[in-house]
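notes to self, project folder thing:

trying the whole complex as one job this time. last attempt i did each chain seperately and stitching them together was a nightmare. four parts in total, labels are on each line so i dont mix them up again. if this works i'll redo the older ones the same way
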Amino acid sequence: MLKNRVKELRARYGFTQSDLGKQVDVTRQTIAFIEKGEFSPSITLSLKLAKALQTNVNDLFWLEEDDDHEK
Amino acid sequence: MLKNRVKELRARYGFTQSDLGKQVDVTRQTIAFIEKGEFSPSITLSLKLAKALQTNVNDLFWLEEDDDHEK
DNA sequence: CTCTTATGTTCGGTTTATATAACATAATGT
DNA sequence: ACATTATGTTATATAAACCGAACATAAGAG
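result (full assembly):
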């Protein structure tokens, strides 16, 4: 399962969803969907988001197990 | 423009396109398209590829300018 | 020479990412 | 009270990712 820190970092920099969308050339709805974890953006968009949020892709997105067996 | 080192790292570990595809749950054609740079995989697939190739997403994929002005 | 394996490539399909538009709500400012 | 702004959410549409199958080529093994 894909997780991300977009909402957290966006808030930290005081960007609105629209602000961030403009910086990375997508609509605010796309940002909203990503924050909700409803889909897995392209690596191109992910790289742009990481740049806009002054981090790297590995810190912004990661995979977590979604079964009961882990840990 | 999106660039990547998938082919280089896959060769380094001696994987075939099929091997790598199985590890990350896509077909060999998908691996071939990514190596050719013909599309931008999802961040989920990118994270799996980075793991399979024992690197991180930032080292595996990056954006390059495609205009003449870049130094 | 034949068999197998890796790769390149194309085509027709399904699924998912993304756009655009609309409507709702809550918060803020005048 | 009204206007504006940020966000949540949904619906419909298009573009792009990805699959499965097919066919071709090149290289290595027997």
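what i see at first glance: Chain A has one domain: 2-53.
need to look closer tmrw
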